[in-house]
Amino acid sequence: MVGDGAFEIVQDLLSHRKELGDAIQHGLTILKSEKVSSNNQPKMPTYGTQVTIQTEYERQLDKIKRKEGRRAKRGAENGMNDFGADDFSSLLQASERKQPFDDMIGTGEGESSFQVTSLPQGTTRKHMKGYEEVKIPPTPTAPLGPNEKLIEIRELDDIAQAAFQGYKSLNRVQSRIFQATYNTNENILVCAPTGAGKTNIAMIAVLHEVKQHFREGILHKNEFKIVYVAPMKALAAEVTATFGRRLSPLNLVVKELTGDMQLTRSEIEETQMIVTTPEKWDVITRKSSDMALSMLVKLIIIDEVHLLNDDRGSVIETLVARTLRQVESMQSMIRIVGLSATLPTYKEVAEFLRVNADTGLFYFDSSYRPVPLAQQYIGITERDYAKRNDLFNSICYDKRLWSPLNKVIKHWFLYIPARIQGKPLEP
Ligand SMILES: Nc1ncnc2c1ncn2[C@@H]1O[C@H](COP(=O)(O)OP(=O)(O)OP(=O)(O)O)[C@@H](O)[C@H]1O
User: Fold this and answer.
1) Whose C-alpha lies nearest to ligand 1, atom 16?
2) Considering the domain boundaries, does residue 403 fall inside one?
3) What CA–CA distance (Å, rounded) separates 421 from 410?
4) What's the CA-to-centroid distance between 171 and ligand 1, angstroms?
5) Which range, 43-57, 297-311, 351-365, 400-414, is most confident?
6) Separation CA 381–CA 28 (nearest Å)
7) Is residue 53 part of a domain?
């Protein structure tokens, strides 16, 4: 077909058969991909293979942009929108009409309805170029009620004094919950702001339980176990150290039981207070071989119970449900004490924990903070990602450098939306 002269060409073709096959395959792939992209984009000339050179900075920006795009898409699909401007304005207007203690739920007891109807008085909102700033002044500290007084440690019995060495008095929140927590055995839920002294509330509940097993000057250590459920292993270790130290004058043994710290059977027997995590306690109470241990539990303290609303909520829910079932089926008394940050759904949580809303539910709002908290929120409205990032950096820088608070504040924490934004990006 190609004549005598083509022998050499045919020979060449045969000897490079593999390379030719690969090249044709490669060409076909490129043609196919061009066809697909030409359907979506205006046609651009292609010059062989294109290489994009990106700096690390651009790469990171692209990554964040893609992530934001996905998040926005998810939000739109789920019908989630930003907090409406109208909603915000009405809250702001309501704050202007308000008196300082208008919405204080400061009784710290029983049922009181909690609804966000306005922002605190003195809240301001300013629109700046590329961003807006909302400043919420600190909530004034609630004044002492006419019958309110702090309980002095020296007024307490010997058991309580032994664990409160070094303290002069209970603070306001602790004084308020003391009667129900130390002198009754009912379930308790305390919702209080950060730093309100919840550890000592747990201590009061522990001391109440210990007191039940002191007879004729002897502590019957084998009659009970106290379980403290901390949200994280690191916190469990901290709680173990604190309670271990403070309960040592009463000869009580406190041990950690988490994924990191296993206990032998004899160690468990010698321990009166077990500090664990929800997941670990769930595993233990699920096993019938450990029934003997759960039968001895008389008090279970659940720290950060607001995590019920979180990813790990189902584990906490399970172990509460299991405890309640044990109480019902064995007719045994296990007291539940829940400690939580301020949460709007506290009534539902109280109901779930079988807490009597009139006598065992305590809710303290931010006017009970030991150190008042001023808040500033910056919402960046700039749409362009790179400009927004620059603005974000310069606002943080200015706030840090020029804030009048620099005179009184030594340490700053900066909360940022994404971890990657916390790293210095290449200029
Ligand atoms: N009665 C008291 N007198 C003096 N200081 C107290 C008293 N009770 C607690 N504190 C101190 O208050 C600080 C905060 O206490 P604690 O850590 O228990 O608060 P918290 O409510 O558990 O806070 P968070 O929600 O951050 O865990 C601690 O330094 C603690 O020593």
Assistant:
1) 197
2) no
3) 23
4) 9
5) 351-365
6) 46
7) no
Q: Are residues 16 and 161 in the same domain?
A: no
Report yes or no: 362 and 305 within 8 Å, Cβ to Cβ.
no
Asked whether 100 and 121 are in contact (CB, 8 A), the reply is: yes
- pLDDT at residue 264 is higher than 70: yes
Q: Which residues form the pocket of ligand 1, taking CB atoms under 6 Å from any ligand atom? A: 167, 170-171, 174, 192, 194-200
pLDDT at 168: 95
Half-sphere exposure of 287 (CA within 13 A, CB side): 9
Average pLDDT estimate for 373-401: 85
Check residues 153 and 43 and name the one with the higher pLDDT: 153
Residues 6+ apart with CB under 8 A from 294: 284, 285, 326
Q: In 287-345, which residue ranges form alpha helices assigned H by DSSP?
A: 291-296, 313-330
Is residue 80, in this structure, part of any structural domain at all? no
How many angstroms separate the alpha carbon of residue 317 from the centre of ligand 1?
26
The whole-angstrom separation of Cα 360 and Cα 365 is 17
Q: Write out the residue range of the structural domain in which residue 358 sits.
A: 153-368
Cα–Cα dist 278/287, whole Å:
15
Q: How many domains does the chain have?
A: 2
Instruction: Tell me the pLDDT band of 57, cut-offs 50, 70 and 90.
Output: low
For residue 374, give the 3-state DSSP assignment.
coil
First to last CA, the chain: 65
Q: Which residue is listed with tokens 């019938």?
A: 288
Last residue of a domain, one of 317, 352, 368: 368
Residues 6 or more apart whose Cβ sits within 8 Å of residue 137: 120, 121, 122, 123, 374
Give the end of a domain, one of 347, 368, 389: 368
Residue 55 lies in a domain: no
- The CB density around residue 217, as the number of other CB atoms within 10 Å, is 5
For residue 370, give the DSSP letter: S
CB of 330 within 8 A of CB of 295? yes
Which of the pair, 272 or 261, is modelled with greater confidence?
Answer: 272
